[in-house]
Every structure is written in C-alpha cells, then in structure tokens.
Specification:
Number of helices: 3
Order of helices and strands: HHH
Number of strands: 0
Shape: elongated
Distance between the termini: 46 Å
Structural class: mainly alpha
Radius of gyration: 13 Å
Helix content: over 70%
Strand content: under 5%
C-alpha cells in the first residue's frame, strides 16, 4: 500500500471517529492501530495527532474492559 493510501485511510478513520459514540470508537480502535503499524512497517512518518488518537482509543478500550469488573 502506498504512503498516500495509508494517509488517506488514516484520515478516513479520523473523520469517522470525529464526534463518534463510545461503541464506534471501540469498534474502530483496531483499525487505527493497524494503520499505524503498517505506516511504521513501511517507514512512513506517523503524525502525532494519529498517535494521540490511537492512545486515546486504547485508553477507551481499557476503561470499557474494566467497567465490567465487579468491585
């Protein structure tokens, strides 16, 4: 996949995530992580906004996982 295709896919995911509900964010998190991994694998620069988005999504996944734990 070309560099432009990776950036385009990342931008498309960012648009989908803009003002998205938690369920959508959780569903798209693996796709964002996958795009970043492919960018790194191909030696493409990963924008900081995309890294921050991925970190926030991973945090959402972890919080959702622990929300279901009894106390």
């Amino acid at each position: 996949m070309s560099t432009m295709n990776l950036y385009s896919e990342a931008e498309h995911l960012e648009q989908k995530l803009q003002n998205a509900c938690l369920e959508t964010r959780l569903a798209l998190q693996p796709s964002v992580t996958n795009v970043i991994a492919r960018m790194r694998q191909q030696g493409v620069h990963v924008p900081s906004r995309l890294r921050r988005l991925d970190a926030a999504l991973c945090e959402d996944v972890m919080e959702a996982h622990f929300d279901n734990m009894p106390i």
